[in-house]
Write a structure and sequence with these properties.
- It comes from Prevotella herbatica.
- InterPro entries: Ig-like_fold, Ig_E-set, T9SS_Plug_N.
- This is DUF5103 domain-containing protein.
- Pfam families: T9SS_plug_1st.
- By secondary structure, the protein is mostly beta strands.
- It folds into 3 domains: about 140 residues, Immunoglobulins (Immunoglobulin-like, Sandwich); about 110 residues, Immunoglobulin-like (Sandwich), CATH 2.60.40; about 140 residues, no CATH class.
- The protein is about 5% helix and about 45% strand.
- The two termini are about 30 Å apart.
């Protein structure tokens, strides 16, 4: 079992151009699905969309690569093993320019599978978008998964954990049933990943099961599956730039940009249930009309009240791609006594939390945010399998567990 989260896993989304923003990868139009997973040989599609901050035409193309369970490229496969049709040089043709927005942008969108390519093998997939007009310069990397549900995965979580009872943690229990899949050596043929709220940065990789049976595996008292419960995600909504909406204290126009000021985030000493999207975000405007090209970009101001620390504090959520980049780092303002940051965001609904990195770069929940066993979290499990003589890891089981209060 990997005790420290794999760096490759935490970088499954990368934006490599400052003009690219609002990258979204989802199963169909389900923006609350924290992991973009589709089922093999089904009608499911992965929708990928992003903005470029100009109205100039660029010929963007993308390539698709199959990856192993650790997101390394599957170098034992030919592209014909996993794609029917083209695997690279595929043009993005769905392009729309923003209309009557203060920040000009062009929205690019495409779906997989499509008329040029379809997927024929389960597993992890990396999509690389390049600018063909600029020597195929890489703009971004996005990932998705394709599952063939050959194995059954059962999940539950409890607050009576192996380290405390109804306190600050939650423990995941899991079972995997092989069904008709032949597994002769579970230690080498089966790889599992369990994560909280779709976060790859703290994923638990290949934890040792408590029981290995002829027809499956079981994790019942696995300490690697004990997670800090944290607190509910904070949230806000920027629907109208002319007046505040949910979670916004004030809005204004500074002559160049619209600004939105989130109510100051105070320490949370007690648990209060608040329905949230566990880090997911949705682009939309007040009319919920042509959201991709009519929505404004707004400078969004975050303010956090928490004791000063030597560790770095970051805003974290789906819109940050769970990446701890400088633009999401909070800065302590000694004149106000608060941590502050400003991020250019497209109109919509956002859920977020604050994360602190320790000296080893490991992400931890901020103490002033609180950690309560009642917190509603979702947990995801991925089960990969490589049969005898096979050349790659296939994704053969998936489960998504959410406790709806």
């Amino acid at each position: 079992m990997l005790a420290v989260p794999c760096k490759a896993l935490s970088q499954h989304y990368e934006i490599l151009d400052d003009n690219i923003a609002s990258l979204q990868v989802m199963n169909g139009n389900d923006w609350q699905s924290l992991l973009p997973i589709i089922t093999l040989n089904s009608s499911d599609v992965v929708n990928i969309g992003f903005d470029n901050f100009n109205h100039e035409y660029h010929r963007y193309t993308y390539k698709i690569e199959h990856c192993e369970s650790d997101w390394s490229i599957s170098n034992q496969l030919f592209t014909s093993d996993y794609v029917t049709g083209f695997s690279e040089g595929i043009p993005i043709e769905d392009i729309s320019q923003s209309v009557n927005t203060t920040v000009e942008y062009s929205h690019y969108a495409f779906a997989i599978p499509n008329s040029r390519c379809s997927i024929k093998l389960s597993g992890n997939y990396k999509v690389t978008v390049m600018d063909e007009d600029d020597n195929n310069r890489v703009l971004l990397v996005a990932c998705f998964m394709v599952v063939e549900p050959l194995m059954n995965v059962g999940m539950a979580y409890r607050t009576n954990t192996d380290i405390d009872i109804n306190s600050t943690h939650q423990q995941v229990d899991m079972t995997v049933s092989y069904n008709n899949v032949t597994v002769s050596n579970p230690d080498t043929q089966i790889k599992t990943i369990v994560m909280q709220n779709g976060r790859w940065d703290n994923a638990r990789i290949k934890a040792r099961p408590d029981n290995i049976m002829p027809n499956g595996m079981q994790w019942k008292h696995c300490k690697d599956y004990i997670f800090d419960a944290g607190n509910e995600y904070r949230k806000f909504e920027i629907l109208d730039v002319s007046h505040p909406t949910m979670g916004i204290e004030t809005t204004d126009w500074d002559g160049n940009h619209y600004n939105a000021y989130i109510w100051r985030d105070e320490p949370r000493l007690n648990y209060i249930y608040d329905e949230d999207a566990n880090g997911a975000y949705c682009i939309r405007n007040s009319d919920n009309n042509e959201n991709d090209r009519l929505s404004e970009y707004v400078i969004t101001h975050f303010t956090l009240k928490t004791p000063p620390t030597d560790h770095d504090i970051y805003i974290d959520g789906g819109f940050t791609n769970n990446s701890f980049l400088p633009k999401y780092k909070m800065t302590y303002n000694p004149s106000t006594g608060y941590y502050e940051d400003s991020v250019l965001l497209k109109q919509g609904y956002y859920s977020y939390k604050y994360i602190m990195l320790d000296n080893n770069g490991k992400a931890n929940n901020l103490q002033s945010e609180g950690s309560f066993f009642q917190t509603e979290n979702s947990y995801q499990s991925l089960v990969y399998y490589r049969g005898n003589g096979e050349r790659t890891d296939r994704l053969v089981g998936y489960a998504n567990l959410k406790n709806n209060k």
